[in-house]
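User: Second chain of the day. Same drill as before.
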Amino acid sequence: MKKYFINFWLWWYVIEAGQVARNLINMWSFTLGYFNVVPMARNLFVPLYQDYSAIGYAISFPIRLIWITVGSIMQLFVTVPLLLLFLMYLVLPLIPVFQLLRYLSNAIT
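Assistant: Same format as last time:
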């Protein structure tokens, strides 16, 4: 029984937590690429569609700035739930242990 108990914790926190973290990072990376924030930030001062006139510069800067702002806000809306989901995954097997300890402490007193 002791071997299975230790194996469960090793499996949950070492093997499965790594896979869950990779899946969540893949989802986060997909949304980062989907919102296209990094290329827009990298090319903030480059005009859209290679229009190097004054109007091209004047139009592209606000468009890219709005794109970066909205994309960053959307990415934040994706990041927070993914972090909470991972923390919930880490805490999930500890809930029965805490309940057992609480029960035992109430039974003793």
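The chain has one domain: 2-108.

User: Great, on to the next one.
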